[in-house]
Amino acid sequence: MSDIDRKTVEYLTKLARIKIENSEMEKIILDLKSILDYISQLNQLNTENIEPAKHVLSCANVCRKDKSRPSLPVDSVMKIAPEKTGNLFRVPKII
């Protein structure tokens, strides 16, 4: 079994700034012991030839060259603007 006792859990709750009722204390102690026992089982596995995973899914970053294109015409964009001042969009002030 792991070295989790009431004093350890009280210390952890103080660090985490959470309050645990006395009625919940025993269950939490048992849960933490169970978690640490499971981790110790995982530590016994031979992972010598296992490559570390960077992500659970194989992902690749999609990169493409930047291409210069003409901008949209200002007149056509300003036609669909809900509110405008000259050639600028008018938006609500956010502080």
Keywords:
single chain; 95 residues; mainly alpha; two-stranded antiparallel ribbon; 3 helices; 2 strands; 41% helix; elongated
Quick summary:
This protein has 95 residues and is mainly alpha-helical. Helices cover 41% and strands 4% of the residues. It has a domain of 38 residues.
Note down, in words, how this protein is organized:
The protein has 95 residues and is mostly helical. The chain has a domain of 38 residues. The chain is 41% helix and 4% strand. It is built from three helices and two strands. The chain has a two-stranded antiparallel ribbon with strand order 1-2. A hairpin with a 2-residue loop joins strand 1 and strand 2. The mean pLDDT is 89.
Name the strands of the widest sheet in spatial order.
1-2
Overall, the morphology is elongated
Cα-to-Cα separation, first versus last residue: 54 Å
Strands, total number: 2
Please, how many helices?
3
N-to-C series of helices and strands = HHHEE
Low-confidence stretches: none
Largest sheet: 2 strands, antiparallel
Structural class: mainly alpha
Query: What is the share of helical residues?
Result: 40-55%
Overall residue-averaged pLDDT value: 89
How much of the sequence lies in strands comes to: under 5%
Rg for CA atoms: 29 Å
